[in-house]
Write a structure and sequence with these properties.
2 domains; mainly alpha; about 100 residues; single chain
């Protein structure tokens, strides 16, 4: 997902990334990335791993709240099916509205 959406050209190597489990394996492409620990049926998380996951969640909650505000606009919730050139314009307008409200 990282290679498809962002890629290495946009981010500096020193920049820290707090990602979710959708970006599992990002460490191979960007060394300064942090993802939560994953549990399974056979391997439960230890107390230290749970604290680590909570620390990551505290860092990511700000952007998750902004994503929720963007998704209030229904055109940003569903797949975009209009002209590709206008997608960036509409996204910029919606983000401008959200920033103006803050």
């Amino acid at each position: 997902m990282f290679k498809r959406t962002v890629g290495n050209d946009v981010l500096h190597k020193e920049q820290m990334i707090f990602a979710d489990l959708g970006y599992l394996g990002i460490n191979g492409f960007h060394e300064n990335s942090v993802i939560p620990q994953k549990s399974s049926k056979l391997h439960e998380l230890s107390a230290a791993e749970k604290i680590y996951n909570q620390w990551i969640a505290q860092k990511r909650v700000v952007i998750e709240h902004i994503n929720a505000k963007i998704k209030v606009f229904k055109c940003m919730t569903y797949p975009y099916r209009n002209h590709c050139k206008r997608h960036l314009l509409r996204t910029s307008l919606i983000c401008g509205i959200i920033n103006y409200e803050r």
